[in-house]
Amino acid sequence: MKKILLLICIIGLFTPATLHAQDRANVFRHGKLDNGLTYYVRHTSMQPGKADFYLVQNVGALMEEDNQNGLAHFLEHMAFNGSESFKEGIPNFLKRRGVTRFNAQTGQDETVYYMTAIPTNDTKLLDSCLLVMKDWSGFLLLKPDEIDKERGVIREERRIRRNLGARLKEQSDPLVFNNSKYATRNVIGSEKIINNFTPEELRAYYNDFYRPDLQAVIVVGDIDAAKIETEIQHLFNPIPKRKNPKPRLVYEIPDNSEPFYTKVFDKEMTESSITLLKRVRQTPPASLKEMMKENLINLFYNQIVEKYLQKYIETQDPAFVQTMVGFSGLVRNYDRWNIHVQAYPHKERQALKDLMEELERIHRYRINNKEVKEQITAYLSRLDETEKNKDKFPNEVYVQMYQNNFLEGKPITSIEEDISLSREILLKITAKDIQDWIASWNNNSKNWVFMMQGNDPDYDFPTKEEIVNIMQAAKDVEATTATEEIKAVPLLDYEVEGGKIVKTKPIRMLNAEEWTLTNGCKVYYKFCDQNGIKVSLLGESSGGMSLLPAENLPSASALSTLAMYSGLYKHDVQMMQEILKGYHVQPNITLGETFEGVSGVCDNNEMEMLLQIIYLLFEHPRFDQNDFEKFVYLNRLQAENTPRTVNDTIAEQMQKLRVKDSPRLWKQDAKFYDAMNYDKMVSIYHDRFQDASDFTFYLVGNIQREEAQKLVAKYLGAIPSIHRIEKAVQHDLRKEGSITETITANIPDNKYMTNIEFTNTLKLKPVEDLAMDVIRFVLSNRYQDIIREDEGGAYGVNVAASYTAYPKHTQAIAINFQSNTEQGDRMRAIIHEQIDKLVAEGVSEEDVEDMVLMMKKGRTNMLANRGNAHWQEALRYYAETGKDIDSPVMFEQPIEKLNAKIVHEVAKKFFTTAECVDIVVRSK
What we know:
Layout: H1 7-11, E1 28-32, E2 38-43, E3 50-57, H2 71-78, H3 90-96, E4 102-106, E5 111-119, H4 123-138, H5 144-161, H6 164-176, H7 181-184, H8 191-196, H9 199-209, E6 215-221, H10 225-236, E7 260-265, E8 273-281, H11 288-315, E9 320-331, E10 334-343, H12 348-366, H13 369-388, H14 395-408, H15 415-426, H16 431-441, E11 448-454, H17 464-474, E12 501-507, E13 512-517, E14 522-527, E15 534-542, H18 553-557, H19 559-562, H20 573-579, E16 586-591, E17 595-603, H21 607-619, H22 625-641, H23 646-658, H24 670-674, H25 678-688, E18 696-701, H26 705-715, E19 739-745, E20 751-760, H27 766-790, E21 797-804, E22 810-820, H28 824-841, H29 845-864, H30 868-881, H31 892-897, H32 900-913, E23 915-923
Parallel strand pairs: 2-6, 7-11, 14-18, 19-23
Antiparallel strand pairs: 1-2, 3-5, 3-6, 4-5, 8-10, 8-11, 9-10, 12-13, 13-14, 15-17, 15-18, 16-17, 20-22, 20-23, 21-22
């Protein structure tokens, strides 16, 4: 939750800490009731017709007594199981009104409940959402029978969370948090307590800490702020102020004077690595200005370190494969300096020496006024963007700001004040400021934790003493010879002889156009300003790796990684970084199984740079054999030294069950990398990216038609063509027929993981396609009620439905869940029983009406927020079918015909003729 001072840090542009009273009263209302409850209400227009409701509790797992370990999270679950005003449960009420986005999350210091995307044209629903938050705040029923049913759900959630990351964290947390309460409260809690606590113990926590002085109500969206404020006062003011409340303690982490050292092992780890973590206690800033300055310094530091470590890896030959270094938040009131390194096998000591010495050089020599000025210039550019778009922040940004103010006391400012203050601060930040900031937390040997992570307990990691000596010796490192300053040159050093647009075809149904260029290339264009100044370009050609012989697939697989790894045209990667400094251009190139493609995103004033890059990717790609050989060497080394895990065994068995044997299926082992050939890779690239006439481009975004035409003709029109026609080869390696199989493996925690997929190729009408969504909805609700709520056999059951009509009719329903080995077989049987029941009995009209309501609301929201990605897909669909993907024929007309009878008929047709792949992976 730390350091959300600037919206820039959240959304890439700019973020004020929170909002100040200088905002107009009808826009922002903020106050505290007599009983201590805090509220924030803000009107926004970025998401018209929608509002978000949050109840923030300044309490979490740290407030639990030893006999309550896990009850903060358990209570969060119970908040959805019945309350004073919603006896049958809040989810039932919300779903019947088309509200599907609601949830809660429990942390160590706070618990947050929320309902989002609430339609604001329904005043009764708005009032009801406030009532929901009131009930969450202190009016839960907490019935003993509901508590007992929820125990199973929590047990299964705990089982899901017990993954590799959780197991490693359990080993390291006692040292990271120095055996403080942060180390003993992992939120999910103790299984013994979950199984045996009494309702009275849960109510004790609830009564102690769910009280107005520890709560904040936040409402942000397209609402009347003054009216919502009045409703909050009316609803929450009568709640009495708690007398003699239990103190809400703030928990600290004791210092450790000497480094802690631990070896963290798990048999599922696939590589060895070292993490050095320094815990840093935050110092409360003296003012808003000081806080903003520190955050900017932190941001610049992380960016400078990342930049120069990347340059070090590219230009030197360090003993490590990868590294991540940064300064960030740890928990409330604490930060961490994190140094992570993955070395070449058995090179950990040298890798750590290389890294620590380079970090010392960065701290001493690379953080200079020239570098800081570059950081400031780039940031000021983003600040200008923010000022232009200050009225377009999504609701989530304001919600986060208000949470920070309530939970951590971050100052309240307006956006305008924050922009102005940021500019003032940026004018005065120097390299010395950053170096002084580093010295403020990197000036002693306290609070270090050294973590060795791997698969083999006998692996020869450096000892604590060796690490301390390496770190100490690095402080004496001398400056390396200064590298020659690189000055950017133009990307292109010659005039491109472009083509022309020889044919323009309006696409009225999409308010778009189709352009044909002199080289045969086709471009579909659509203006869209939904994403601000962003422009998206996608170019695709059919073929891909499907046209290559099996022996060339290893060489081809390196293309997507190495296509721009060595730079472009005459420019190596460092020069390309200089050329693109200050740009927001994000080019990409892909060689897929059935297509080859180029793509990119940029600001509208950067479109020429993006198109120049695309042009050069066709005309003058740049490859370097040394880079290729390094890539092959590193991957082969990793393949040879990665220990085999149970996940490998499971993946092999799953492939054996579902996929035919084929020479096209390469296992990524040493043989795979031995088969890679540099000349073949380059030859494949030139073959796949040589024919503009076989490419179709989709250009969408905030760029005017005339400008787009000029740039497209010049650069895409200049790409040569050989006018070949290619189609991808469909190598269908999927085994046909239904499969039922159980795979047993050495998986910890008594797990039972079920994946069931039904597939079919029925020729369905649009109304029947929509019926598939109702089937998914009904099954999901039934599994929620039976498997989760009644049986306590799973934390949740995921049901997904998909259907397509082009290029061929396909439908699928996938069901997956995780249970335990004692209940798993029964839960698996319930999945099939409910499908059989659906096929036999159908669904109710009420089920259909509920789903239709949600589908209509979702459709309205989608149509109102169609951005670049949507229109790009719409243009692709039109290019392939000649149809409008958003046509009323696809939704508005068939949805009115949808009823229970049609759903029943589709369910019978689909399930009785579908292939079913039913695979369980379970612990031995």
